[in-house]
Amino acid sequence: MDHQQDYPAEYLASILSEVKTIAMVGASPDPTKFSYGVLRVLHEQGYNMIPVNPRHAGKQIRGLKVYPSLAEIDQPVDMVDVFRASEALPGIAQEAIDIGAKVLWSQIGVYNEEAAKLAEDAGLRVVMNRCPKIELFRPFWKPKLGQTI
Hints:
By secondary structure, this protein is α/β, with parallel strands linked by helices. It has helices at about 10-20, 35-45, 90-100, 115-120, 130-135, and strands at about 20-25, 50, 60, 65, 80, 105, 125.
């Protein structure tokens, strides 16, 4: 898949409707940070959110336990959402593979072709340079929110 092109709406909708548990790598406890806002909205929409940030491990973000790494998470993870530099993405992709995640999603501005290939070769669906919070509110997703299209 060419991750520099727009993703088909059906592809994004299927991911957002199928995943239940999302590990957010780079989650911040700072309410002014974008990652905090994305975590808040996804959590409020019913996703089981797992913040991952080694600097805040053992603490809580919005009442959710913060893990030091993906490997330390003690439950299955459907999707790994990444708020880190693009250079960190191949290592995170490998960690997502190692824990059995089904989707690797990198946030706006986070793109790495090597990570995409690694994840796709292992059977993960990949979305890069997109925000699940934004995609959640696109027109194809309005029925989930009880709104008309």
